[in-house]
Amino acid sequence: MVEIWQYGLLATILVVAVGYAGWHIYKTIQHANDPCYNCEGCHLKGLKERKKAECNKK
Length: 58
Fold this sequence. Notes:
By secondary structure, the chain is mainly alpha-helical.
C-alpha cells in the first residue's frame, strides 16, 4: 500500500514541473518576435543597433 506522503510528494513534483514548463513557454511566446532576446553580443544585435543609430541621424 502506498503511503499518503508519497502522493503529496508526487503532487508537489508535478506542480513544480508544470509551473517550470509553463513559465518557460510563457517567456518563449512573450519574446517570439525578438531575434535578439537572450543573446549576448551577437553580430545581428550589433547590426540592429548600428541601423537604428543611422536612422536616428537622418
